Amino acid sequence: MRKLRLLIHCLMKKILFTVVLVLCLVPRMRAERPDIKVGANVVGSYNPAWGFNTGLDLDGRLSLQDTLDISFSFEGMTANVWSFSLTARPKVKFRPGTLYVDATAFVRLVARDHLYDFIVAGSAGWKMKYCDFQLGIFSRTSGYMRSSLPEDALREPTNLLYRLQFNIFGDEAQWDILGGVKNFTEYEYERMRSPIFYLGGRYEYNERLGFKAEIDIKPSGMFNMTAGFFGITGRLGATYTF
């Protein structure tokens, strides 16, 4: 547990340094009024390893429309699994779309099995009205919470990260339907050969209040440790913009 606390402390320092560096490199932020969006989802999930379980997601985003997004997410599940992520996204808008770069730190605690995951990810993406493509890499360190030996940790220095999303009506429409394939979410990261297929939608009731829903399906094995695996997760929630 002491080792876990030291890793969390070191990771948080790296996250803080990244965010401060990005803020220093974006002087335009002082001239813009940031938008703050917060959201909450109820979650239902099933997989053969953990059975059926429920949970709650909390997320937030501070957005400077043309320069930078800083977002966080937190999830707690009744399977005693906890996730937290923090992402800084500098971006540049062009006429056909938006170019962005993501720097993410992610922590997942599978407390029921005394396991942890630490992930650092970097990626670049191109977002258009009806399509969003993202490609990058991530590094994973996994281990047993009760172990104090560094050699007990499992390190995967390089994994491919990808996401391809299509929107029917686009972000500027009052409501939209979206879907695609990816190998990561704000709450989990899978290897390249373990895709997650998803379908979702959103509805903006007014300028501040919105609603959203999404279903994720994993047809391949979780951590490639089970054969014939099928996992499904559903989320239903609301967002509010200050």
Concise summary:
With 242 residues, this protein is mainly beta. It is built from one helix and twelve strands, in the order H-E-E-E-E-E-E-E-E-E-E-E-E.
Keywords:
242 residues; mainly beta; Porin; twelve-stranded antiparallel beta barrel; 1 helix
Characterise the protein shown here.
The chain is mainly β. It has one helix at residues 2-24; strands at 35-47, 51-64, 68-77, 81-93, 98-110, 115-127, 131-144, 154-167, 175-182, 196-204, 209-218, 231-241. It has one domain (2-26, 35-241): monomeric porin ompg (Porin), CATH 2.40.160.40. It has a 12-stranded antiparallel β-barrel. Strand 2 (51-64) and strand 3 form a beta hairpin. The model is unreliable at 222-226 (pLDDT under 50).
DSSP, total strands: 12
Kindly provide the name of the CATH class: Mainly Beta
Task: Briefly note the CATH topology name.
Answer: Porin
Mean pLDDT: 86
Distance N to C terminus: 38 Å
Give the SSE order as H and E letters.
HEEEEEEEEEEEE
Q: Assign an overall shape.
A: globular
How would you summarize the topology of this molecule?
Layout: H1 2-24, E1 35-47, E2 51-64, E3 68-77, E4 81-93, E5 98-110, E6 115-127, E7 131-144, E8 154-167, E9 175-182, E10 196-204, E11 209-218, E12 231-241
